[in-house]
């Protein structure tokens, strides 16, 4: 299988398993990824880790052979497929962590950017090189990159098609951390920092922060107030505040 989905305790692990093609994304693989995300939504897990098989690449992007000589509407449908699959990560009830080793080009970078968090090995190389093919990113890159690194820097990266190595990616906010050593273990560790908290509350926090990038401050504050009020209605809020007063560890029930 080119897309493997397994469960490791409280974690779901999705592996792009096509190392001979640098884990490139065919349209069928995109569909398989979408189906895997749908399964994660119904699994008893608290986070999703996404990685690529082999040492050379997380994901080298789209399968270029599939992009040529297609009718106009098929080209648009292909872009919408990639966008819709990656957008499923925004709707998952759990956070996702991209574990990027080696190349993450085109759709590979776009998949990583769609995740909640990104960890990179020292050899990680990001890039949106579509301009070199006479194209622009089509799976969300033009929208997610500026939200992560700012519009000016995103324009420079996209318009030059240049590579962004791990150290720079961390400096500009494209990745959360560069990890020396076992990337999968680092993914488990960062997931462990938030999986012990209430899943609905984590979702409220993610929704509030995400909306900050596409609305006014006034509207964003209203969204925050609404979501904060909803959090107070959870039994997890009562448990959390009671545990604080009683100087014990909270036992959240996700409700």
TrEMBL record:
Tree of life domain: Bacteria
EC number annotated for this UniProt entry: 4.2.1.17
Pfam family, one: ECH_1
Alphabetized UniProt keyword annotations: Lyase
Gene3D superfamilies xrefs: 2-enoyl-CoA Hydratase, Chain A, domain 1, Lyase 2-enoyl-coa Hydratase, Chain A, domain 2
One GO process term, biological-process aspect: fatty acid beta-oxidation
GO molecular function: enoyl-CoA hydratase activity
Family, as annotated: Belongs to the enoyl-CoA hydratase/isomerase family.
Protein name: Putative enoyl-CoA hydratase echA8
Species name: Tropicibacter naphthalenivorans
